[in-house]
C-alpha cells in the first residue's frame, strides 16, 4: 500500500534523526495501531444556538490516548495520518464512532445533528461518499443529521474536483460547513460556487472582537455576507460573555468556545446536555 512505501523511505535514516523526527516516526508506527485498537477517542464541543439559548448540535474532535505519551491533540497527528495514507482509515473510524455516539444521544432525544472534521485528502478518495453513507446507515440515521467540516484550503488546491465531490456529498443530504473561515485564501467567487450550508468564522477574528474595531468590521460583514448567501454562521473561540452577547447582537446564529463548553468526552457532554435548566446566556 501507499503507506508501506512511505515507511520504507523513512526507516533507513532513523539513526540520524533528531528527537523531533524520532517522535514523529514513532507516531507514524503507533498511529496504525491506534486506529485499530481503542486508543482514539472523540471529544465533543457544543454549538450553541445563540437566539434560542439551546444546544442541539455538537462537533466531534479527535484525541489520541497514547499509551506512553498521554493525550495527543489532533494537530500533532492529523498531518501524519494525511502524509502516510492513514487518513481514510482514521476518518472512517471518526464517522463510525460519531454515528454510534450520536445514535445513543438521539435515543435520549438530546440532539439534532453532529459535525465531524474531514481532511482535504479525504476528498481525493473517489469512494469517500459511498463509504461514509454506508457507515452512517449502519445505524439507520438520517443523512441530514451529519455535518462535515472542511477548511477552505481543502478546496483551493483542486477546486474542480473538490467541488464535484462536495456536490455529491450534499446530494446525499449531508451538510457541509467551511471551518476556520478567513484564514485561507479562498475568494468570495469560490465560496459562492461551494455547495455549503454553514460558515465558521475562525477564532482569530473572534477572540478580540469585543475590543478590536477592525475585527468587528470583519466579523460583522462576514455574518452579513454569509446570510446573504443563505448560509448559517458559527463563531469559534468564544471565551467570555461580552463576546457572546456582541455576536448575538450581530445576528450570528451559533457560537462555540470555552465560555460555553470545552470539548469533553461523551459521558461528560451527555450529562451537560441533560442539565436542561443550565443557563447558557450572556447574562448567566
Ligand atoms: P477545528 O475544527 O477548528 O476545532 C476547533 C479547535 O479549537 C479545537 O481544537 C477546539 O478544542 C479549540 N477550541 C474550541 N473552543 C476554543 C476556545 O474558546 N478557545 C481556544 N483557544 N480554543 C478553542 P482541537 O480539538 O485541538 O482540534 C484542532 C483541529 O484539529 C481542529 O480544528 C480540526 O481542524 C482538527 N481535527 C480535530 N478532530 C479531527 C478529526 O476527527 N479529523 C480531522 N481530519 N481533523 C480533526
Ligand atoms: Mg471544526
Ligand atoms: Mg475551526
Ligand atoms: Mg482549526
Automatic annotation (TrEMBL):
It comes from the Bacteria. One of its GO terms (cellular component) is membrane. One of its GO terms (molecular function) is cyclic-guanylate-specific phosphodiesterase activity. Keywords: c-di-GMP. Residues 24-277 form the EAL domain. One of its GO terms (biological process) is signal transduction. This is cyclic-guanylate-specific phosphodiesterase.
Amino acid at each position: 500500500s501507499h503507506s508501506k512505501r512511505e515507511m520504507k523511505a523513512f526507516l533507513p535514516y532513523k539513526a540520524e534523526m533528531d528527537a523531533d523526527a524520532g517522535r514523529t516516526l514513532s507516531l507514524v508506527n503507533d498511529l496504525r495501531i491506534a486506529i485499530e485498537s481503542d486508543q482514539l477517542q472523540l471529544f465533543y464541543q457544543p454549538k450553541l444556538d445563540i437566539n434560542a439559548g439551546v444546544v442541539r448540535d455538537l462537533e466531534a474532535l479527535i484525541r489520541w490516548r497514547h499509551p506512553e505519551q498521554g493525550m495527543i491533540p489532533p494537530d500533532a497527528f492529523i498531518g501524519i495520518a494525511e502524509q502516510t495514507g492513514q487518513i481514510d482509515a482514521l476518518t472512517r473510524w471518526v464517522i463510525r464512532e460519531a454515528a454510534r455516539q450520536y445514535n445513543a444521544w438521539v435515543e435520549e432525544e438530546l440532539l439534532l445533528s453532529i459535525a465531524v472534521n474531514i481532511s482535504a485528502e479525504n476528498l481525493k478518495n473517489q469512494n469517500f461518499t459511498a463509504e461514509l453513507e454506508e457507515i452512517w446507515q449502519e445505524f439507520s440515521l438520517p443523512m441530514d443529521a451529519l455535518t462535515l467540516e472542511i477548511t477552505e484550503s481543502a478546496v483551493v488546491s483542486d477546486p474542480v474536483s473538490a467541488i464535484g465531490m462536495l456536490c455529491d456529498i450534499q446530494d446525499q443530504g449531508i451538510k457541509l460547513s467551511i471551518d476556520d473561515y478567513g484564514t485561507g485564501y479562498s475568494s468570495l467567487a469560490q465560496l459562492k460556487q461551494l455547495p455549503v450550508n454553514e460558515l465558521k468564522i475562525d477564532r482569530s477574528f473572534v477572540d478580540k472582537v469585543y475590543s478590536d474595531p477592525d475585527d468587528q468590521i470583519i466579523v460583522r460583514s462576514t455574518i452579513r455576507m454569509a446570510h446573504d448567501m443563505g448560509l448559517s454562521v458559527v463563531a469559534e473561540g468564544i471565551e467570555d460573555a461580552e463576546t457572546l452577547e456582541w455576536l448575538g447582537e450581530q445576528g450570528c446564529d451559533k457560537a462555540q468556545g470555552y465560555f460555553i463548553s470545552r470539548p469533553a468526552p461523551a459521558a461528560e457532554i451527555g450529562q451537560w446536555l441533560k442539565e436542561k435548566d443550565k443557563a447558557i446566556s450572556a447574562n448567566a
